[in-house]
Specification:
This protein is α+β, with helices and mostly antiparallel strands. The protein folds into two domains: about 5-255, q2cbj1_9rhob like domain (Jelly Rolls, Sandwich), CATH 2.60.120.620; about 260-339, no CATH class. It is built from seven helices and 13 strands. The chain has helices at about 5-15, 25-40, 85-90, 95-105, 180-190, 260-310, 315-339, and strands at about 15-20, 50, 75-80, 110-120, 125-130, 145-150, 160-165, 180, 195, 205-210, 215, 225-235, 245-250. The strands form two sheets. Strands 1, 2, 3, 4, 6, 10, 12 and 13 form an eight-stranded antiparallel β-sheet that branches. The chain has a five-stranded antiparallel β-sheet with strand order 8-5-11-7-9, with no helix packed on it. The chain is elongated, with a radius of gyration of 33 Å. The relative contact order is 0.14.
Length: about 350
C-alpha cells in the first residue's frame, strides 16, 4: 500500500523507494532465468537482447533475438511481459495499485517495455543524463510510470542510477526526448543535486519517466542486474502503425479508434491498387518483349536482304519486292501493338 505521504514525496522528487517486493528465492529465480535466456539454454521467440560492449552508449550494437554465442555480458533482455517466469513480477499488486492511482482505476494498463538491464561485473555501459519519453519513443502520449526492481544490490560501486530530484517537474526538456543537451546538463545537473539511487536486491523504485537520470559503468566484481517496466494507459498507440500494446491488467475494448479504422481501409485500397499496377506493369513488360523480338526479326531479315544484293539481278529484284512487302507487314504489326 502506498500512502498519501509517499505519493506526495513522489510528486516532489520524481521517484519513490517502494521497499521489498521480492523474496530472496524469487530474486535468484529471476536472475537465473535472465542468464538462461542470454546463454541460450532457454529460448523465448518474443524476447530480444542486446550485448554490452562496455563504455560508450552510442557504440552499442542492435538488439537480436538470440546471441550467436551465449554470454552473461548482455546489456538488456526485452519483451519479458511475454515470459512465463517474469509475468508474476509484471503483475505485482503494488504496481497495479500505483498505476490505478496514476492513470485512474478505470484505465487498463499496458507495457511499453519490460526488460532486464544489466551492467556486467567489470564492464557496463555509461548511460548519459536522459529522460524516458518524447518523440523518440514513437508513442501518441508519454508513459508516466516506470518500476525498477534490483536483482543485484545496486550501489555507487557497481553503477547504480543517479537522479536529479524534482527534475520531472521541468517536463520534457526536448520534445524528441532521450539524452538531454550539454546546456541542460550544466543548468539542471550540478554535482550538488545528484542523488545516487542505491537499492537492495529485491527492492523496487517507482520513477517518473520525466525524471532526469543516468548510470555509470560497473568497475566492481558484482553485476548490477535489474528488472524495469514502463507502464502506460492501454489506449496509447504506436504513432507509426496505430497499434496498441500488450494489456497486462484491466479491461479494454478491443476495437480500433475511428482514425485507425480509416487508415486500415485506405491501406487495403492502396495495397489493391499497387497489386493492380504491378500486374499491369508486368503485362507491359511482356508486350515490350514481344515487340523487341519482332524488331529483332525485322532487323535480321533486312540484313539478309542486304546480303543477297549483287546476286542474280532478276531474282534479287523479285526478292526485294517480296522482302519490302514482308517488312511493311511486320512494321504495321509492330505499330498496331504499340497502340
Amino acid at each position: 500500500m502506498i500512502s498519501m505521504d509517499q505519493w506526495n514525496d513522489f510528486a516532489r522528487d520524481g521517484y519513490l523507494h517502494l521497499g521489498k517486493v521480492l523474496e530472496e528465492e524469487e530474486v535468484e529465480a529471476l536472475k537465473a532465468r535472465a542468464d538462461a535466456l542470454a546463454l541460450g539454454t532457454v529460448v523465448n521467440p518474443q524476447v530480444v537482447m542486446q550485448l554490452d560492449t562496455g563504455g560508450d552508449y552510442d557504440s552499442l550494437p542492435g538488439a537480436v533475438s538470440q546471441f550467436e554465442t551465449g554470454t552473461r555480458f548482455y546489456r538488456k533482455i526485452q519483451g519479458l511481459e511475454h515470459d512465463d517466469v517474469f509475468v508474476k513480477l509484471v503483475k505485482h499488486p503494488l504496481f497495479v495499485e500505483a498505476c490505478a492511482m496514476q492513470y485512474g482505476h478505470h484505465a487498463a494498463i499496458s507495457v511499453f517495455r519490460a526488460m532486464i538491464m544489466n551492467k556486467p561485473a567489470g564492464q557496463g555501459t555509461y548511460l548519459p543524463w536522459h529522460q524516458d519519453g518524447g518523440d523518440v519513443w514513437g508513442l501518441d502520449r508519454d508513459p508516466l510510470l516506470t518500476f525498477w526492481v534490483a536483482l543485484d544490490p545496486a550501489t555507487k560501486q557497481n553503477g547504480c542510477m543517479d537522479a536529479i530530484p524534482g527534475s520531472h517537474r521541468l517536463g520534457l526538456l526536448s520534445l524528441f526526448g532521450s539524452t538531454i543537451s550539454e546546456e541542460n546538463v550544466a543548468r539542471h545537473c550540478p554535482p550538488s543535486r545528484i542523488t545516487p539511487l542505491e537499492v537492495p536486491a529485491g527492492h523496487a523504485l517507482m520513477i517518473s519517466n520525466w525524471l532526469i537520470h543516468r548510470s555509470g559503468i560497473n568497475p566492481s566484481s558484482i553485476p548490477r542486474r535489474a528488472f524495469t517496466m514502463s507502464c502506460m494507459d492501454s489506449r496509447t498507440r504506436n504513432v507509426h502503425t496505430g497499434e496498441q500494446f500488450p494489456v497486462i491488467w484491466g479491461d479494454t475494448v478491443d476495437r480500433p479508434a475511428p482514425f485507425v479504422g480509416q487508415l486500415s481501409v485506405q491501406n487495403t485500397a492502396l495495397k489493391e491498387s499497387l497489386a493492380s499496377v504491378t500486374e499491369y506493369a508486368k503485362s507491359l513488360e511482356a508486350e515490350c518483349q514481344k515487340l523487341r523480338e519482332q524488331y529483332a526479326a525485322v532487323e535480321q531479315y533486312a540484313k539478309s536482304l542486304e546480303a543477297s544484293r549483287g546476286a542474280d539481278a532478276g531474282r534479287g529484284a523479285r526478292a526485294g519486292r517480296s522482302g519490302v512487302g514482308r517488312i511493311a507487314d511486320l512494321m504495321r504489326n509492330v505499330a498496331g501493338r504499340g497502340r
